[in-house]
Structures are given as C-alpha cells and as structure tokens.
Amino acid sequence: MNIYVFVKRVPDTESKIRIDHNTNSVIEEGLNFVLSPYDEYAMEEALRLREAKGGKVTAVSVGPDETTVILKKCLAMGADEAILIKDDSGEQYDGLRVAKIIAKALETNLQDYNLLLFGKQAVGSDNSQVPSMVAELLALPQVNVVTKLEIEGNSAVAHREIEGATEKISFALPAIVSAQKGLNEPRYETLKGIMMAKKKQIPVVTLQDLGLSDGDLAPQLEIVKMEGPPPREAGRVIEDEPEVAAKKLVEFLRQEAKVV
Amino acid sequence: MILVYIEVRDGKIKKSSLEALSEGRRRADELNTELHAVLVGHNLEGLAAEPFKFGAAKTYVLENSLLSHYSPSGYAYALQSLCQEINPEIIFFSATSLGKDLAPRLAANLGVSLASDCIKTEVRDGGLEVLRPIFAGKAFATFRFKSSPVMASLRPNVFPLIDALDAQGDVDKRDVVIAEEKVKDRVQEVLKEEGAALDVTEAEIIVSGGRGMKGSENFDLLKELVGILPHSALGASRSAVDADWIDHQHQVGQTGKTVSPNLYMAFGISGAIQHLAGMSSSKVIVAVNKDPEAPIFKVANFGIVGDLFQVIPHLKQELEKVLSE
Asked: Whose CA is closest to A161, among A173, A178, A174?
C-alpha cells in the first residue's frame, strides 16, 4: 500500500493564545509548535497498515521551513519519507486554499496512492474542511472522524463517530480517511528512529513547482477582526456543609440562572 | 436567496437545522431576500412543510433511493446541481457531524471557501460577516467572504429558534439523476451505543466529570444526574478519558468537543487550559471541586469547594424536588 499522511504544524494545546491586533493574527513568538494531535492518529494508522500489508508511508505537510520539525517527528515515528510543500503565507483559516495545494500535489508529484490519511481537524484553525475538500477535488470517497479502519485488498470498512452513534461505511480505495482519537494509540519515537530521521533529507516542493500561482491561491476569507475570549465575570464560590451547599446551588440554578 | 440545508436523522428534522433556518430568516429579512430550505434523501416529502414554520418560502426535496443513507459524495453531487441552478447568495449548514462532513465537500465543488462552526452572523456593509472560535475558543475571529456563494456552518445550540409560524410555502420535489458510482461512501449501518442519550454538542445541560471522579464506576453518579435533568448529556475531561473511565466521545476540550450549553456542571474538573477552551462559552457554569485554587472556579458562575461524593447525593435530591414542582 502506498499511503500519504497529511500533517500540520500547530501550537501545542497547552498554549495560551495571544493576538496581534494590528495584523489580526496569532503571535507565534513563544509558542511551542507540535504535530497536530489528530495527525498523530493518522500517522500511527498508516504505520500499522504498512506493518500489516507492506508498502510505503510518506508524511506531507504544507507550511513554512519550520514545518520540517514535525516532519522529522513523522520520520522518527517510522515514515519512510517526508515531503514539505513550502508555503510561507501563514495561517489563513481557509481550508479550500490548502485543499487546492494538496489536490494539485496529488495530481502532479505524489502519485499512485491507495490511501490518503489526515487528522479529523487541525487543532487551532479547527476547520475540519481539508480532507472533504481534497476528496471532492479528486472525486474520491471520504470518511471523516474515523475510530476504526479495516482494509482488505481495495475495499475498506470504516467506523465514523457521529452524535451518540457510529456510522459504518464501506468504500473502495483509493480514498480519504480522517482520524479521530480512539482509532489507535500513537507510538512514541524510538531513539533509533530519531537518529535515522536526523539523517534523512526532506525534499521541498514549492508552489511554483506544482504550477500554482498566487492568483490560484488568493485567500477568499478575509479576517476582519481577531480577539480573545470574552472575559467571564467572577462568580460566587461557597464552602458549606454538603447539604447546605447543594441547596444553595439548586436555588441559584432555579431562581437566578433559570437553567433548570 | 439564502439556502439552508436541512438534516434529517431517524425520520425527523434536527433541531439544529431549524436553528440554522431561524438564523437564515433573520439575515434574509435584513438582506431583503428569500429563504429556501433543501432536504436530501429518500421518502422525505412528509417533512417538506416543516421548514415553512421557521421562515422558509420554499423547500427543495432532492430524492433518490441511492441517497436513502448519507453519502458525502452523493449528497454533495445532488446539492451542487441545485446550487448551480438556483444560485443562492448564502448557504447555511448546521455544524453537526454531517454538516461538518458535507459542507466542505459542497464548498470545494462550488469552488468557494467556507467558515466552519460559526457562532454569530451579521450583515455589515451589505455583506455577511461571521464570528467563529479558533483554538477551540481560546480566540475568536470575524471573517468576511470574497467568494460567492457565501458558505458557513453554524454551531448547534447557539442560534435561537424563531417562534414557529403558521405559514405555507412551495414544495419543489425533484428526482435526482445520479449514477451509482457517484455514491462512493454511503453509510451502511448506524450502530448506536446502548442507552445512548444526547451528544454533548447538542445538549442543553452537560454534567461533566474529571480526575476527581476517581474511577469509571463513579460516573454512574453523574449518569443519575443526566437521568433526571431534561436535555442533558454526560461530559468528561481529558484526564478521565485518558484514564479509560469513559469513552472519548464524551470528552470536552481542545482535543475533544467544544460546547456551549445553557448549563455546564463540572465535577472534579480542575480546569486545564484545554478544557476551559472547550467549555468557556457555556452560558452558565457551575463547579464542585475539593481544591479552592482550581482554575475552574475562575470561570464558574457558582462554585462549591467540597467533596463531590458528598455533594452529589444532596444535589440529586434537591434537583428531583424542584424538577417535580
């Protein structure tokens, strides 16, 4: 099986997000960037499939030079190759732009794939758009938010998490699958893996190499404003006998907040 | 015209679709344009009139037996041919599991960008602006669209329903012509968790437990509260999920679900930054925690410093009392 895993560099989930109000963007200084958490499940699934069926796993990311750090992590986890599609435009929160780049790469440089794996969303932009958009642009089947994946030859069955239930979907490869937590338990990099990853070259593909112009990729969402969460008013904190405390809480819920 | 996609689950229109329709009605009034609804599936004609109560002037019903179960490729195909014909200015989806799956596929087909999981829409200088959380609610961004049609998915449980109208409209039923190979990813079966109640993203009340619950068996205490509170669901922090006390689909936070219920009840949850991001937009937050310094108290409207195992039984009793009144 030839598998491509599409990964993204994002601020880790511990990060406090600060905003530059002049540029309407997140201040990157001081942030610790990591492989987006859901992409780890996608990487792990690719490695397990390769271990079971043979083949090749390639990690691909769209982003600036600094993205090589997460691609090195993918190599250290066990990816055979990693490719950086260099894009210095910064976070645009525009899934279609990224989907167009990936679809174009799949039509030109990255061919003969059986499976394209993604995380179900990138932590940060929280769009949940790119896998579905790439699927449409390449006329492929898509199954998102997957917690179980079984592949037999060219047919696959996946479990997709929805509200309070699971959908079971059968589809043919090649296809797009996006990973949800629960799909597997991602492995840690081994020391040997880290050493090997250090030696590996990461080829860089430019947007020009893919034949994409600025016009093709002009962002279609304009960020008008970016701000922090609205502050919450400090509430009341009580320390009482459990019975009294419970009574006061229910009074609050019933009479003040009017939510029960 | 504003077009709203109406989702059907278990033979019924989802409330979140009616919320999206209600928001569509408000924006259509401002923009002085029409509001239409669209359903996709099979044998749906019986539901076609319901959107009229929430302001739609017309309901398109796109039918084919191949679409009796959800398929993103099949549904996007059916919707794109309608959109090309009727040219909506704005398309709203509800940001449910299905909406988050289908809206981007349709957007890519129409060649337009999409704003996901919006919590506010507004007309400004004749165009639509939307507000959406980023970083699971650690920040908020307002977007304008340069592409047309404008496409946005709206977070469930945020947009108020309009008062149901006593109105009629046109039903435009169409048999979709679609080849079987265009339906590439059809749902074969829906497996339900036993006794599965509401999902946290759809609940009006979330009863949530963290590390302080001390074990999976103690989540039964929270389930009892869910049992007596109407429209409530069980939530959990990441530590509880990672300890295998409860399934991941209950997880609230940056690597779980972002929620905005009317009431969020946090038991034994300290309030890590990832968790706070996912639930801080709840309308009312209450917390019970042993540690008076727990960060959860900084966002709670009402907090109890104490032992949750002692508080919950009394709380249940009191709630049963007032709810039976």
From this structure: A178
How many C-beta atoms lie closer than 10 Å to residue A55's C-beta?
Answer: 15
Q: E-assigned strands of A109-244?
A: 115-119, 142-152, 155-162, 165-172, 175-179, 204-206, 221-227, 236-238
At residue B34, φ and ψ (nearest 5 deg) are: -85, 160
B141 in the same domain as B266: no
ipTM of predicted assembly, 2 dp = 0.96
Whether residue B172 is found in the same domain as residue B216: no
Taking the C-alpha atoms of residue B134 and residue A16, their distance in angstroms, rounded to an integer, is 12
Is residue B152 located within the same domain as residue B219?
no
Are A229 and B138 inside 8 Å of each other by CB? yes
Cβ neighbours of A166 in B, within 8 Å: 190-193
pTM of the model: 0.95
What is the pLDDT at residue B196? 60
In-domain check, residue A214: no
pLDDT at B243: 97
Nearest CA in chain B to A140: B184
- Examine the pLDDT at B263 and tell me if it is beyond 80: yes
CB neighbour burial string for A199-238, b if at least 16 within 10 angstroms, e if fewer: eeebeebebeebebeeeebebbbbbeebeebeeeeebebe
Q: How many domains is chain A built from? A: 1
Write out chain B residues lying below 8 Å of A252, CB-based. Answer: 286, 301-302
Last residue of a domain, one of B147, B182, B217: B182
Whether residue B178 is found in the same domain as residue B216: no
For B157-167, write each residue's pLDDT tens digit. Answer: 999 999 999 99
State the DSSP H helix or E strand holding residue B51, giving kind and residue range, or none if neither.
helix B50-53
Instruction: Please name the member of B112, B187, B229 whose beta carbon is closest to the beta carbon of A169.
Output: B187
Q: Is the pLDDT of residue A135 over 90?
A: yes
Q: Which of B105, B189, B201 sits opposite A132 (nearest CB)?
A: B105
Residue B199 belongs to a domain? no
Task: Report the domain count for chain B.
Answer: 2
For the beta carbon of residue A188, count every other beta carbon within 10 angstroms: 7
For residue B249, count other CB atoms closer than 10 A to its CB: 26
Is A142–B189 a contact, with Cβ atoms under 8 angstroms apart?
no
Does a structural domain hold residue B198? no
Distance in Å from the first CA to the final CA of chain A: 54
Domain limit, last residue, from B150, B182, B214: B182
d(CA B239, CA A97): 35
Residue range(s) defining the domain that contains residue B244: 205-323
